[in-house]
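[Help] Beginner question about ligand-bound structures

Sorry if this is basic. My supervisor gave me a protein sequence and a SMILES string for flavin mononucleotide and asked me to "get the holo structure". I don't really know what that means in practice or what format the answer should be in. Inputs are pasted below exactly as I got them.
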Amino acid sequence: MTSTKAILGVSGSLRQGSTNALLLRAVADRLPSGAVMTVFDGLDDLHHFSPERDADHENGTAVLPAVARWREAIARADAVLISTPEYAFGIPGVLKNALDWAVSTILFDRKPMGVLCASPGFEGGHKAMASLLPTLTALNTHIPEGCSLVISSVRKKMDNEGQVTDAATAEALSRLGAQLVGASE
Ligand SMILES: Cc1cc2nc3c(=O)[nH]c(=O)nc-3n(C[C@H](O)[C@H](O)[C@H](O)COP(=O)(O)O)c2cc1C
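Answer (accepted):
No worries, everyone starts somewhere. Holo just means with the ligand present. The predicted complex, written as structure tokens, is below.
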């Protein structure tokens, strides 16, 4: 018997109605049977990272509850999918902050990871991807083939309900979901 594969979705946007949150849902809707996505909702609860706020085993300092919740969500996941906007040619601080909270752990080590960078701009998203990939390399994540995707002009590829209407994008999202689940076996 094969067990259900747990995919953790992480949106780099906190915005209500975020296109990146909608893209996570679009991938979730297309996952192969036997895989389920849970979207993490606690990025906004994380403190700004600073090393002295991290648990200190020698002094017995406990892990902050919001940080513990984030780390447990990563640990439980067979694979992680980040979908993020581009902010000022990089990634939103809230996402970088969350990733910084994982640096002192081995939670992302060889963890299959998918990455979507979506922007309404004609050439948007590429700089967010270029900024994010080195951080994911530092965390030693494993990005399988077909699992990193820049989606420029994203609003032209969705309808008002957030359904992906562009056939090539829909196909790429299905492929990404299948590859990510395949890599987590
Ligand atoms: C502070 C800020 C900076 C932005 N910088 C960029 C940028 O550098 N490149 C880009 O393509 N879009 C940029 N955008 C536009 C975002 O890509 C756009 O708002 C996107 O829809 C946000 O994603 P969301 O719908 O998931 O919230 C920026 C938006 C904001 C609010």
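A couple of things worth pointing out: The mean pLDDT is 95. Strands lie at 5-11, 35-39, 79-84, 113-118, 148-151. Feel free to follow up in the thread.
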